[in-house]
């Protein structure tokens, strides 16, 4: 079984890394888009990050352009948009695919461990969220319409 901390991911600058530096943290991993009706969720995500980051929460943002091309632009443009419009400070990675043959290995892992009750493994839209505990276990999957504040209690429980 693959350890989530060993899965290769791409940084915005094209460099490679893993989630190893996040061991022992509670992770909220989200596929995002800047031109989606759900884009205002960035505000709620940032609020969670501001509230719980010092207690061990990390929000990991993976822009995805697979759903009606709602994450146009370069990684730099996406980052600037998020910082300017939503004052985000949580880590953002290189734009990824979350479904299909070119799906990011991290999202393959997440989907393998938490499928959607109606759709199976496929991610149906931007802002699907996966919650990972301090041991690297995928403990919850939230649909795109789930507002960040609706996850707060579960995050608090994982943070202890």
TrEMBL record:
UniProt-listed Pfam families: GSHPx (PF00255)
Q: Name one GO biological process term.
A: cellular response to oxidative stress
This protein's UniProt keywords: Oxidoreductase, Peroxidase
Q: Which PANTHER family match?
A: GLUTATHIONE PEROXIDASE
Q: Which residues form the signal peptide?
A: none
What family does this belong to?
Belongs to the glutathione peroxidase family.
Q: Which organism was this protein described from?
A: Streptococcus merionis
**What reactions does this protein catalyze?**
2 glutathione + H2O2 = glutathione disulfide + 2 H2O
Q: What protein does this entry describe? A: Glutathione peroxidase
Transmembrane segment boundaries: none
PROSITE patterns linked to this entry: GLUTATHIONE_PEROXID_1, GLUTATHIONE_PEROXID_2, GLUTATHIONE_PEROXID_3
Active-site residues are 36
GO molecular function per UniProt = glutathione peroxidase activity
């Amino acid at each position: 079984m693959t350890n989530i901390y060993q899965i290769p991911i791409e940084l915005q600058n094209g460099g490679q890394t893993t989630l190893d530096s996040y061991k022992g943290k509670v992770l909220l991993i989200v596929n995002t888009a800047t031109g989606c009706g759900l884009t205002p969720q960035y505000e709620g995500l940032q609020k969670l990050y501001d509230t719980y980051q010092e207690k061990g929460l990390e929000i990991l943002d993976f822009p995805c352009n697979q759903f009606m091309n709602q994450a146009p632009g370069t990684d730099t443009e996406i980052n600037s948009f998020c910082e300017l419009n939503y004052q985000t400070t949580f880590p953002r990675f290189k734009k990824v695919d979350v479904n299909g043959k070119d799906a990011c290995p991290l999202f393959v892992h997440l989907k393998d461990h938490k499928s959607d009750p109606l759709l199976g493994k496929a991610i149906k839209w931007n802002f699907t969220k996966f919650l990972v505990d301090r041991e690297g276990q995928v403990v919850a999957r939230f649909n795109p319409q789930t507002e960040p504040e609706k996850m707060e209690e579960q995050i608090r429980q994982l943070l202890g």
